Amino acid sequence: MNAAAGFCVFDTEIGACGLAWGDHGIVGVQLPQAHAEATRARMRQRFPGTQEVPAPPAMQSVVTRITALLAGHADPLLDVALDMTDVTAFHQRVYAIARAIPPGRTLTYGEVAEQLGEPGAARAVGQALGHNPFAPVVPCHRVLAARNAGGGFSAAGGVATKLRMLQIEKAQLGPEPGLFD
After folding, report:
1. First CA to last CA across the chain, in angstroms?
2. Would residue 51 count as lying in a domain?
């Protein structure tokens, strides 16, 4: 597991989120749990031995941008450095495609699988996104089940949280014309 240098918990429109960082970028983001203390506990569980500390300036910038994204500001966060040392190659490929989906747009698990060149891998795409340690920087909420159904969502609140995030982004279902041509 990637070593985290520290973590912080911060308020957003959808609740208290967490951010953990290390020497090579973000090692994890936590979407809200039931309340701030639950988010804090989840961060301690995910990053044992890591202390909650004030975010250094580079990480505070990420906190500010995530907070803005969750308030409806369209920031794709593409330049945010993620430490994917412990992420499998397949998951990295899935996350790269998910990161390319602009705020307010969606794809289906099948469409992501097609972009991977593995059209039968929709279920594997869903599993990869279910293990996404970087949501919403890797915006797994923008990937839906077939026929644009919500599909699963592993964050607290499940699909309701996913749909709320899409509502905040004023999501239009489907890829932007020409996005993946």
Report:
1. 36
2. yes
Tell how far CA 97 is from the center of its chain: 12
| pLDDT higher than 90, residue 171 | no
> Are 109 and 163 part of one and the same domain?
yes
Q: What is the CATH number of the domain that holds 151?
A: 1.10.10.10
Concerning whether 140 is annotated as a catalytic residue, the answer is: yes
The SS3 assignment for 55 reads coil
DSSP one-letter string for 58-114: HHHHHHHHHHHHTTT-----TTS-B--TTS-HHHHHHHHHHHTSPTTB-EEHHHHHH
In CATH, what number is assigned to the domain containing residue 20?
3.30.160
Question: Which is it for strands 107-108 and 25-30: parallel, antiparallel or unpaired?
Answer: unpaired
For residues 23 and 52, membership in a common domain is answered with yes
82-106 pLDDT, tens digit each: 999 999 999 999 999 999 999 989 9
- Asked, for residue 64, whether it belongs to a domain, the answer is yes
Give the range of the structural domain holding residue 43, as residue numbers without chain letter.
6-69
34, part of any domain: yes
173 pLDDT more than 80: no
* Residue 67 pLDDT exceeds 90: yes
Distance between CA atoms of residues 139 and 5, nearest Å: 24
Catalytic residue, from 140, 165, 166, 168: name it. Answer: 140
pLDDT at 175 over 90: no
